[in-house]
């Protein structure tokens, strides 16, 4: 599948490469062309696909920065495509669909979508959402790139490896974690035993976009509880502070790659021995 290179007086294809490479998956030709034309005018590279098979082929062959996905595809379940994509990759996903029911929106976000926009839509708003999601994703990548400072968090028997972007249970089992869950968990781990409002969590976790509503935090918290709590309906790790927000109820130890005298390895009263801090 051919992509669309951008040639202009401000840097040509290199400008498009800086903006990003978007995969647009939609069986409606008019919608697909509209999105492609608008993103092209705004210096993005665009790869079109009209079904899940083409989507996977492009993902295998090309470097994609973000996927814009229609859920209502002929003979295919868009939610299952989103699930498959999230299980195989951390590429950001924006759902752009004619399905407006709240249940589908919630399900898509629970499966790992980063944003959800319904048709009819504003091309300008879609562009703003794409840029916002990519900013959050790149900011998260910068957090990972800082692994020479913080390599991992250990709390309540769990380990969140920042560099590898992995979550390991007390039993030593790898637990899949989405971009949104990762950002939210880091926000909690950086501020243990503190009550954090939904608005603070939106900022700290970089989940805020042009039209993110408070419930998106509730959804992310629910997903973390389902993965990390023995009884999700009676959480002991991430507790709700009614009317105020949420609180991580655990001491947190931090492992650093580099030990500095002026950079104590401590969170909520727990200091990691240097011998441990060097190893992961």
Explain how this protein is built.
The protein has 280 residues and is α/β, with parallel strands linked by helices. The protein has two domains: 13-143, Response regulator (Rossmann fold), CATH 3.40.50; 149-277, Arc Repressor Mutant, subunit A, CATH 1.10.10. Helix content is 39%, strand content 21%. It is built from ten helices and 17 strands. It has helices at 13-19, 29-41, 52-61, 78-88, 102-110, 123-145, 179-189, 198-204, 215-228, 274-277, and strands at residues 21-25, 45-49, 66-69, 72-73, 76-77, 93-97, 115-118, 152-155, 158-161, 166-168, 174-175, 195-196, 238-241, 245-248, 252-255, 266-267, 270-271. It has a five-stranded parallel sheet with strand order 2-1-3-6-7, sandwiched between helices. Strands 11-10-9-8-15 form a five-stranded antiparallel sheet, with no helix packed on it. It has a three-stranded antiparallel sheet with strand order 12-14-13. Helix 7 (179-189) packs across helix 9.
Roughly what percent helix? 25-40%
Q: What's the oligomerization state?
A: single chain
**Total count of helical runs of at least 4 residues:** 10
How many domains? The number is 2
Name the helix and strand elements from N-terminus to C-terminus, one letter apiece: HEHEHEEEHEHEHEEEEHEHHEEEEEH
Determine the CATH topology of the largest domain. Rossmann fold
Based on the coordinates given, report the CATH architecture of the largest domain: 3-Layer(aba) Sandwich
């Amino acid at each position: 599948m051919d992509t669309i290179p951008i040639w202009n007086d401000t840097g040509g294809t290199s400008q498009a490469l800086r903006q990003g490479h978007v995969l647009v998956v939609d069986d409606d030709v008019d919608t697909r062309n509209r999105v492609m034309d608008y993103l092209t005018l705004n210096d993005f590279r665009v790869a079109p696909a009209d079904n899940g098979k083409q989507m996977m082929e492009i993902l295998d062959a090309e470097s994609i920065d973000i996927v814009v996905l229609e859920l209502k595809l002929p003979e295919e379940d868009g939610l299952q495509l989103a699930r498959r994509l999230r299980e195989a990759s951390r590429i950001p996903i924006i759902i752009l669909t004619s399905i407006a029911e709240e249940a589908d929106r919630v399900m898509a976000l629970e499966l790992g979508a980063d944003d959800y926009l319904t048709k009819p839509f504003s091309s300008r708003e879609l562009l703003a959402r794409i840029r916002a999601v990519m900013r959050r994703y790149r900011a998260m990548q910068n957090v990972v790139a800082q692994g020479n400072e913080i390599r991992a968090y250990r709390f309540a028997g769990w380990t969140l490896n920042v560099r590898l972007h992995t979550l390991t249970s007390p039993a030593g089992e790898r637990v899949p974690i989405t971009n949104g869950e990762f950002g939210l968990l880091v926000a909690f781990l950086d501020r243990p035993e503190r009550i954090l409002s939904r608005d603070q969590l939106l900022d700290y976790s970089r989940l805020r976009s042009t039209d993110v509503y408070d419930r998106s935090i509730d959804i992310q918290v629910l997903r973390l509880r389902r993965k990390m709590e023995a009884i999700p309906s009676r959480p002991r790790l991430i507790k709700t502070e009614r009317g105020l927000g949420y609180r991580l109820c655990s001491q947190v130890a931090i492992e650093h790659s580099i030990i500095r005298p002026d950079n104590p390895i401590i969170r909520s009263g727990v200091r990691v021995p240097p011998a441990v801090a060097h190893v992961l």
